[in-house]
Design a protein that fits this description.
28% of the residues lie in helices and 36% in strands. The protein has one domain: Roll (Thiol Ester Dehydrase, Chain A). The chain is α+β, with helices and mostly antiparallel strands. Strands 1, 2, 3, 4, 5 and 6 form a 6-stranded antiparallel sheet that branches. It is built from 6 helices and 6 strands.
């Protein structure tokens, strides 16, 4: 590992980056339902969902998870020196803590928990992610997201 990469890893480990707010509206929820063919009434039927303890439609957990990629790309995080590409390596943990009602705004905080060489030309990253909902005490999602960077 060259000194530029080693310095970058030392500087980034433990740093956090936060996205801007994003509105999770019914149109977004409906498009996700159509794409995934998950039309459960809690997500797509405002009248029926209003009769539940949620008081209206809520976003799919997997929709919230999928929003992490664009939210991460908005952060001011610097690019790994020498990186050719980064690939999604999965998750070590995902928890859906609180529902996200249609019309709510969410944002994500990404904390670099681990960043280490994982073989020649590979850097593995583990990020602790928290997806918060504006005005709510508890987060919507907490996760540990893994990425493999190819140099």
């Amino acid at each position: 590992m060259n000194s530029e990469l080693a310095d970058f890893i030392r500087a980034e480990k433990g740093r956090s980056y936060r996205s801007d707010w994003l509105t999770v509206d019914q149109a977004l929820i409906d498009r996700f339902a159509d794409t995934t063919r998950d039309w459960m009434f809690l997500h797509v039927d405002p009248v029926k969902a209003a009769e539940t303890e949620f008081g209206g439609t809520i976003a799919h957990g997997f929709l919230l998870l999928s929003l992490l990629a664009p939210l991460r790309s908005e952060t001011p995080r610097p690019r790994l020196p020498g990186m050719r590409m980064g690939v999604n390596y999965g998750f070590d943990k995902i928890r859906f803590i609180s529902p996200v009602r249609s019309g709510s705004r969410v944002r994500a905080t990404f904390m670099i928990a681990e960043l280490a060489q994982d073989g020649p030309g590979k850097i593995r990253e583990a990020m602790d992610v928290t997806l918060e909902v504006e005005g709510m005490e508890r987060p919507a999602v907490v996760a540990r997201w893994l990425t493999m960077y190819l140099l």
